[in-house]
Amino acid sequence: MLIHTVQIRVRYAETDQMGYVYYGNYATYYEVARAESLRSLGFSYKLLEEQGVFMPVTENKSKYIRPARYDDLLTIKVSIKEMPVKRITFEYEIYNERQKLINLGETILAFVKTVNGRACDAPDSITNLLKPFFNG
Amino acid sequence: MLIHTVQIRVRYAETDQMGYVYYGNYATYYEVARAESLRSLGFSYKLLEEQGVFMPVTENKSKYIRPARYDDLLTIKVSIKEMPVKRITFEYEIYNERQKLINLGETILAFVKTVNGRACDAPDSITNLLKPFFNG
Amino acid sequence: MLIHTVQIRVRYAETDQMGYVYYGNYATYYEVARAESLRSLGFSYKLLEEQGVFMPVTENKSKYIRPARYDDLLTIKVSIKEMPVKRITFEYEIYNERQKLINLGETILAFVKTVNGRACDAPDSITNLLKPFFNG
Amino acid sequence: MLIHTVQIRVRYAETDQMGYVYYGNYATYYEVARAESLRSLGFSYKLLEEQGVFMPVTENKSKYIRPARYDDLLTIKVSIKEMPVKRITFEYEIYNERQKLINLGETILAFVKTVNGRACDAPDSITNLLKPFFNG
């Protein structure tokens, strides 16, 4: 299992008139958490796209437990619990500054070749880096 | 059951460098679909907030089946399948211009009193309008 | 001069905790107004990109006179006051439902060839449609 | 004069199908730069709102010189060049990782009392912190 922790400060743009972070903006927080978890392995999602593989989201789920508010410094614990083959699943727990759990999320992404738009397996560039975290 | 249909044209701002609508932006499409489905009953979410009840999202799920692209005119079929008590659930099917299903979604919202932040039942102003759609 | 009028309803996602439309979201309203003004001529920005020309923004200005609020049905009057050559300038006036002016804006866009990223003149597909509005 | 430097990494959500940061998203980068420049003084915009003053934007201008792209680590140099009275003006220069200037911006904000929605002078809590930067 790979676990990585990221911090994000809530922007004014992300709040809504309820004074909460708009529910759709958590998807962006998840995206940042995914990118940073891969960066922590020395992997770059940007480079992956340049190498001809992109990762469209196929599924996303969120539970909203407590609101996040403007200027909150959120802590996102992101984890990959299974070695990716056709798809990769990221899970998230988001905590506010008082260490209260505010959000749970899960995103499933596919691997697709840019050249033909076809689904493919997780490229070696990513599985090689993940293997050490899933040793039997 | 209440079913309502809404059309939304994809904005450039909503696309990402993959050339797809960014996955987090579907939450906004769902929001528009919810608001318009209630407006079709003669109900205004804006007015509800002004009357002291707001509806924070507690859960959201999406399946991304096909991409939506810039300038696509999407059709969203939104439905309420159960009379709301403590919570209300909206389900969505999104179709592109070739009538292909591109997205499935579900959002659960609570009812909360502005004055004390406490959960409450669905207000009469909404249940009275919904009753005709759920007659035994 | 070309003048076109577009209506946009404010989404919850576009508000911030001040209860106003977030100032950055007007750029999206301008984008919709531009696309719809061109569509009114029978022109499609989407098609232009497919034909190998895109239009990056080089300058944008806004004056915020009154707030826009959730669910407001805004009217955007967009105008092109000069025949485009290297660049095209769009100007906007946004009114709320009480016909009060709430926002003034101006955007300048360039024409760039997708193939080499080089600036080019406004393509004939757009200037031919605009000519009738600028006859001496 | 107060000058402060902030770094922001471009999110996927912020790109558009041109592969650039969408022009409207710079407003959010400016917002972060403003908040962080004030935080560097020990000032919190969040606290200001809690104390009953909010700062709506009255004017915003941007020049887009080069595109910003996904995952770029941008450097924003934000400056306040004049002591605020009725309004405060922030200016921005944004550089990419190769130290190339990509964007110039300017935002003017007013001070407004939450209680009555009336314009007011810059509160002492902010002018006292700024004074040392505008001596003699």
Question: Overview of this structure, please?
Answer:
The structure is a homotetramer of 136-residue chains. With 136 residues, chain A is of the alpha+beta class. Chain A has a single domain (2-134), classed as Hotdog Thioesterase (Thiol Ester Dehydrase, Chain A). Chain A has three helices and seven strands; from the N terminus they run E-H-H-E-E-E-E-E-E-H. The first copy, chain A, has helices spanning 26-39, 45-50, 124-130, and strands at residues 2-9, 53-54, 57-64, 73-80, 87-95, 101-113, 119-120. In chain A, strands 1, 2, 3, 4, 5, 6 and 7 form a seven-stranded antiparallel β-sheet that branches. The model of chain A has no long low-confidence stretch (mean pLDDT 96). Chains in contact: A-B, A-C, A-D, B-C, B-D, C-D. The A-B interface holds A 17-18, 20, 22-28, 31, 49, 54, 56-64, 67, 107 and B 17-18, 20, 22-28, 31, 49, 54, 56-64, 67, 107. Strand 3 of chain C pairs antiparallel with strand 3 of chain D, so a sheet runs across the interface.
Chain-wise SSE layout:
The structure is a homotetramer of 136-residue chains.
Chain A: E1 2-9, H1 26-39, H2 45-50, E2 53-54, E3 57-64, E4 73-80, E5 87-95, E6 101-113, E7 119-120, H3 124-130
Antiparallel strand pairs in A: 1-4, 2-6, 3-6, 4-5, 5-6, 6-7
* Total E-strand runs of chain A: 7
The greatest inter-chain interface is formed by: A-B, 24 and 24 residues
**What overall geometry of chain A do the principal axes of the alpha carbons give?**
globular
Q: What is the count of structural domains of chain A?
A: 1
Supply the number of helical segments of chain A: 3
Unreliable stretches of chain A (pLDDT < 50, length at least 5) are none
- The CATH superfamily title of chain A: Hotdog Thioesterase
**CATH class term of chain A:** Alpha Beta
Q: What distance separates the N and C termini of chain A?
A: 11 Å
Mean pLDDT of chain A: 96
Q: Which structural class do the helices and strands of chain A define? A: alpha+beta
- Looking at the structure, the CATH topology of chain A is Thiol Ester Dehydrase, Chain A
CATH architecture of chain A: Roll
Helix proportion of residues of chain A, in percent? 10-25%
Give me the Rg of chain A, rounded.
16 Å
- Assess the beta-strand content of chain A as a share of residues: 35-45%
Secondary-structure element series of chain A: EHHEEEEEEH
Multimerization state: homotetramer
The main pleated sheet of chain A reads as:
7 strands, antiparallel
